[in-house]
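Example record

The entry below shows one chain as it appears in the dataset: sequence first, then structure tokens.
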Amino acid sequence: MPAQAAADTYRLDPVHTRVLFAVEHAGFSHALGTVSGSEGVLEFDPQNWPSARLSVTVPIQRLDLGDDKWNKATAARNLLDTGRFPQARFVSTRVEPIDATHANVIGQLTLHGVTREVTLAVTLNALKRHPLPPFRRTAGFSATATLSRSAFGVDGWPSMIGDEVQLRIEAEAVRDSNAADPQDAPAAPVSPPPVEETTP
């Protein structure tokens, strides 16, 4: 049997990687928010999905619901408590391929100081040379997941905020043999302003 090629290492592009979340608001609508600036490393060979490895850090303190009061309420101690837990982290544990461009990526999500298993339904959109300088080989993905916020200890305002959180992730990763997991770098000090426990 021929030797299998090693997976390439990719660095997430924080500018073109964004997490969108949707959660029910008092039964009237679904509040939509985004988090930009995620960083991480992907080891990926499109011919060998099970060998893929993903490690991502998501700066929860940068969440944006489109309104400053909503942002502060969501970041408050009785919800995400971003003063103590400014980041979320996802580390894959296994990958179950479906076909050439789809797979379930199972991993450990740490959010609000709690770690639970989460499954991402992932679609590979493209893997090719980027058309703009510096013309690096780039992988583009879309993913979805659903989680329970109370399973992560985020259980404030149950009469106002639904428990089910729907995630949609759009990500681009650039091939970079020197890419390093942000978890391996010294954490920058985070000193967010105090937030009030206000009604979402």
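Notes for this example: The CA atoms of residues 75 and 81 lie 5 Å apart. The beta strands are 8-12, 18-25, 29-36, 39-44, 53-58, 88-99, 102-111, 114-129, 137-148, 161-175.
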